[in-house]
Amino acid sequence: MSQREGRFDFVVVSNRLPVDRVVEADGSTTWQRSPGGLVTALEPVMRAADGAWVGWPGKPDVEVEPFEADDMHLVPVSLTSGEVERYYEGFSNDTLWPLYHDVISPPAFHREWWETYKEVNERFARASAEVAAPNATVWVQDYQLQLVPALLRSLRPDLTIGFFNHIPFPPYGIYSQLPWRRAIAEGLLGADVIGFQRSSDAANFFSAVRRLFGYGTRSPEIRVPDGAGGHRSVIAKAFPISIDVESFEEVARRPEVIERARRIRQDLGDPATIMLGVDRLDYTKGIGHRLKAFGELLRDKSVSTGDVTLVQVASPSRERVEAYMQLRDEIELTVGRINGDFSTISHPAIAYLHHGYPREEMVALYLAADVMLVTALRDGMNLVAKEYVACRHDEDGVLILSEFAGAADELRNALLVNPHDIEGIKEAMLQAIEMPKRERSTRMRALRRRVRENDVARWSQTFLDTLRHVGHR
Ligand code: G6P
């Protein structure tokens, strides 16, 4: 069967479309751009190149025709509720996610989930092949779609194909547990360029490719036999992702946001130090570890309620996956215990918020936070760390950052911690609380330079330049 061709020269493919479906009071539906960094980065590229975005609208059983929004052509891929269970909640978020994050939670291996993962990846590949113009560039995003590059290449050998893995790529000893380790790696090798967050992720991928297939590698190049006696060259290397630094800073300079930050502090009872955690409620984020450290500081009387308040925003995530339900129970039990033991009528020990908030409110929280806690046990990058830094135009605030987050490769002037070391987190918290103003500014200035040097526009340009180069060989 021959594959139809489309009219778009640039196609982005991701599990979710960059828009949210909003149901109005009269029952009609509209689409609102979701606030993600990826769409901000790719918007100019989309506009310049006549781009299309292929993705799932985020709800099961929603059949929508392609539509235009914000100058982008959006191509919805529908999933039934069974497919959402097996492909999204199951294989993506209960097999690959825990496996790629160092098996912090045990991954479940189910053959039915794998079958649906393959089917859904095929659907994404077909939808992309149908909209891509001859010789177009297609950029596939993230672990939910690792089979798409090879599927797409077999449907449309004329395309230039990029893949970016937003999450870690695990060491071979972990990756090799995956019963479908060869199929997944073959899927990725269909791309011309495979991007990772850290060079250690790229190195792990090289080692998987050598061990599984024995292909010749000379970083950043992998030589993949083309079946006709020759070979294709695949580039695999790190392209650390970032945020739209200017737009965060712009929001952080708005007088009403600065005023809101002041009000937040006042509403918390004007503590000397506000510590902040902002995470999706995910077991990779080390929320429990930071709560434990904070609870012990209160118990030891190293800090006291009223002087120090911890604000923890935990936005709801993947709530139908068992490990996430369990995590929520654990975290909320811990918060309840600490608050029961240490809060007073006027001062909470922990202000715990199980909500997502609009960007303005998040920025106000960043501005109010004297200490930002990023204690992930494993994280591809962690953009919260970069957002905090981008917002601190006052050159104040201390970032405590896990060395197991990708951001630690760049943000060396943070207080780096091993989140498994509770004593280490406690020491870093105390060091941050007591840090003199001069040191805070020196560190924050250096952090801000780093974040500004590599914003998300630079990330996408660098990736796409590499892809262009390879595609034109
Ligand atoms: C991580 C992943 C993304 C994912 C996001 C939110 O950042 O790398 O691919 O979209 O989490 O998770 P969700 O499952 O809600 O899409």
TrEMBL record:
Subunit record text: Homotetramer.
Species lineage: Bacteria, Bacillati, Actinomycetota, Actinomycetes, Micrococcales
UniProt KW keywords: Glycosyltransferase, Transferase
Catalytic reactions of this protein: ADP-alpha-D-glucose + sn-glycerol 3-phosphate = 2-O-(alpha-D-glucopyranosyl)-sn-glycerol 3-phosphate + ADP + H(+); D-glucose 6-phosphate + UDP-alpha-D-glucose = alpha,alpha-trehalose 6-phosphate + UDP + H(+)
Pathway: Glycan biosynthesis; trehalose biosynthesis; Glycan metabolism; glucosylglycerol biosynthesis
E.C. designation(s): 2.4.1.15
Protein task: Involved in salt tolerance by producing GG-phosphate from ADP-glucose and glycerol-3-phosphate (G3P), an intermediate in the synthesis of the osmolyte glucosylglycerol (GG).
Gene3D superfamilies: Glycogen Phosphorylase B
Keyword Transferase: yes
InterPro entries per UniProt: Glyco_trans_20, Trehalose_OtsA
Xref: Pfam families: Glyco_transf_20
Any single GO BP term: trehalose biosynthetic process
One annotated GO molecular function: alpha,alpha-trehalose-phosphate synthase (UDP-forming) activity
Keyword match Zinc: no
Entry similarity comment: Belongs to the glycosyltransferase 20 family.
Name used for this protein in its record: Trehalose-6-phosphate synthase
